[in-house]
Amino acid sequence: MSKTLIIGASGQIGKMTTELLLKNEQSVVALVRDKSKLSDLQSPFLNIVEQDLEGDFSNALKDCEQVIFAAGSGGNTGDDKTVLIDLWAATKAATYAREHAIKHFIMVSSIGADDPDSINGDLKPYLVAKHMADEHLINSGLSYTIVRPGTLTNDAASLTVTTKRPQDQDKAKISRENVANALLHIATNSPNGSRIFELFDGDKPIKAAVK
């Protein structure tokens, strides 16, 4: 059975993904800064590693076959944390993954990370960080999937999505639960090669939309 490292496993999408993988009896290494945030998760398939992403967390990748990077600095932090987590920790994770011969790396990025210059305002530093982290992964030599969700919501999972950006910007959104279910599908269906796609709530079952 493959073992998946989830970086940022105590975050909203990270924890949802961890729970889904465990329910599917997948072996998970959950990397968190504070393991008490996962105290409600009990599973023989779970191993919790407590480390700070601002330090060296390379040992967490030992014996893992794939990585899901779902960590984020959060909306209440400054640009310094955006650089340290969304950029620097993400690039370190890809470097560690290459050193550990990880088979596949799944990056949770963001809509707009392909072209940060198209955005002005407070969100731009975040998108620049995501863009540079994505570029580092693309050039790493790893097999990868980069998922760029639209605006995140707390709606319940519809389990139907689209990879085509809606023309109406107000519809360019997706529930965190739908993202987590898409990550589950990717992690349990060995991708062939590398790919990048945006993801929104839509009308196609995840299996059909995220081939």
Automatic annotation (TrEMBL):
Record SUPFAM superfamilies: NAD(P)-binding Rossmann-fold domains (SSF51735)
InterPro entries: NAD(P)-bd_dom, NAD(P)-bd_dom_sf
Domain of life: Bacteria
Record-given protein name: NAD(P)-binding domain-containing protein
Boundaries of every NAD(P)-binding domain copy: 8-189
Residues forming coiled coils: none
